[in-house]
Amino acid sequence: MAAHTSQSVAKAAGGDGEDSVAARGRSRRTDSAKHGGLGRALATHWYAWAMIAPVVLVLGVIIGWPLARGVYLSLTDANERNVARTIGANHIEATYKFVGLDNYANVLADPVFLQRLLWTVMWTVLCVSITFTLGLALANMLNREFRGRAAYRMALILPWAVPGFVSVFAWRFLFNRDSGILNKILDGGGISAIPWLDDPTWAKFSVVAVNVWLGVPFMMVALLGGLQSIPAELYEAAEMDGATAWQRFRHITLPGLRSVSMTVILLSTIWTFNMFPVIFLLTRGGPGDSTEILVTQAFREAFVSSPRDFAGSATWGVLILALLMIFALVYRRSLRKQGEVW
Hints:
Blueprint lengths: L1 H43 L1 H28 L11 E3 L2 E3 L9 H8 L1 H32 L6 H13 L2 H11 L6 H8 L11 H29 L3 H9 L4 H12 L1 H16 L2 H7 L11 H10 L6 H28 L5
Antiparallel strand pairs: 1-2
């Protein structure tokens, strides 16, 4: 009985040993397969890796390093008085210190941040919604056959071809209170001059109008491409079934444009949220600070305030990036719930 028991134990131990050896063998084969797969992928697609390597390197230098530097500065008390600088032949070493999250606490507790955030969100929502609505309407109009369609397309795309700063300066001239063309036209109609850039409410209206004027061509072109990808047979079948124009638009056009619409809305939101040139060149954030958005406030901290607060500006920049990343993640999750792959 004892001998039988000892043999059973020996067999069990031997079986466990064999299983463990087999498991180790499988693990080694799996690891080697993984490494081999990676090696084969590199060997097979080496040309692709070689082509994208310079782009990755350039992006790392242009974007990665400034981003890392900005995050680091946001954790310090760096300003123009304590950073490293050279005056004549004398080099002064940096004396700024690491302060952790104090800058973030100070910015978030400052009522100015909430004011800038609310106006930035309002500005973004207004611009994107109006731009999308006008772009969709114009795209539907230009998707029809009519005489002179090519000329209309060229005319509507023209604002996109003109450099942004040129367009903003032209609009600044149009909005001039004393010699602007708009007020001259109003004066000819017996209407008193409007302080387009001197009144907070009218200044907000002006910056929204200019940004919409600049953004409509992109939205129109993107949506026009989406419209042309919708099969014409769907409209013909719906029309034969007695569907009205509104029903065809609601049940064919809008679903057919969903993928394109989601993409252009995301891009337009990010661009508008960070639209520095329109605000800065048109109103300089004024009158007062009524049209300041988050990105212009970050610029003001670094280049206008005295002493220039590099740490504060970096903090504003990191917060802007964080807000946009949160928006993109929420937006992506909502698209996935609707069945869109992005």
